Amino acid sequence: MTKAPAKQADSAPPKGATVEKPKAGHKPNALQQPLQPSDDLAAVVGKGTMARGEVVSKVWEYIKANKLQNPDDGREIIADDKLRKVFGKDKVTMFEMNKHLAQHLK
What we know:
two-stranded antiparallel sheet; alpha+beta; 4 strands
């Protein structure tokens, strides 16, 4: 009597595989949904609709280009005038950042 081969879980793509974009007629997931940034956020990431993941990437590009990470604690972001309008305060952690960004995306 032989054992049947174990089924492979379908929940995650294999390591190194690319994730397919939604096909025409399929609803995009939350990270792919086109959103409009507020005027304050658009001053950092640019105008026009973009996916949430793209917004986060552009905010990180801005943070790194302007050296806004705390040199003693890289998890902390020190807001300049543009980011202060988005975050509502002088410092946020990278974990808080997405919460503040969500308030500026519709």
